[in-house]
Amino acid sequence: MSPCHTLLALLTLTACSKGAAPSKAPVMPTLPGMAAVAPPTITGNDPRAALFLTKGCPTCHSVTAVGIKSSTDVGPDLSIAYTDVRSRFGTSLEEFLPNPTGTMQMVLGQLIKLSPAERDSVIHMLKQISEQQDHHEQDHH
Ligand code: HEC
């Protein structure tokens, strides 16, 4: 086979293996039993959105404070997570993320690996977002 034919064969192969997938959108992680999901809708260009998007959190979570709208909203909006984790799980986000319970135990154990640095960034951003919201509320009082 000439190099040209090899290339052609390769291209055809890639095209076929894509099957019915609509586009080259990144494949978002899903839990077993969960159908493939549409990518999230992004508005604005908040740099804090990048890490959530790379790690695939928007498969299940909106983070509206940074312009991410999940197509599924399987989990709660992470914009409120910093305080919500305390009321729902009775622990701080700093303690929850390295040692989660419920769905996130499965997600962070099997689907998505967060390095300690990535975990710190997530905590830092969600804390920052929560503080911004607090200030916002105080403005109205
Ligand atoms: C496959 C779906 C899925 C993915 C992907 C996912 N989560 Fe979750 N997450 C959930 C669900 C569902 C909950 C609700 C809690 C429960 O049911 O245990 C949750 C809860 C949380 C909570 C607690 C929120 C609260 O308000 O109490 C945090 C924090 C969180 N997720 C962070 C993340 C981060 C960060 C990522 C990406 C690294 C991520 N999640 C990816 C499904 C997911």
Listing every helix as H and every strand as E from the N terminus to the C terminus, the arrangement reads: HEHEHHHH
Overall geometry comes to globular
What is the average per-residue confidence, as pLDDT, rounded to a whole number?
85
The main β sheet shows up as:
2 strands, antiparallel
**How many E-type strands?**
2
**What is the helical fraction, as a range of percent?**
40-55%
Notes on the structure:
The protein is an all-alpha fold and 141 residues long. It has one domain (3-19, 40-139). Helix content is 49%, strand content 3%. It contains 6 helices and 2 strands; from the N terminus they run H-E-H-E-H-H-H-H. A two-stranded antiparallel sheet has the order 1-2. The longest helix has 25 residues, at 116-140. The radius of gyration is 19 Å and the shape is globular. Residues 7-23 have low confidence and may be disordered. Bound molecules: heme C.
Highlighted features:
single chain, 141 residues, mainly alpha, two-stranded antiparallel ribbon, 6 helices, 3% strand, binds heme C
Fold topology:
Layout lengths: L2 H15 L23 E2 L6 H7 L12 E2 L11 H9 L3 H4 L6 H9 L4 H25 L1
Antiparallel strand pairs: 1-2
Bound molecules: heme C (HEC).
The site of heme C (HEC) has 28 residues, from helix 3 and helix 5.
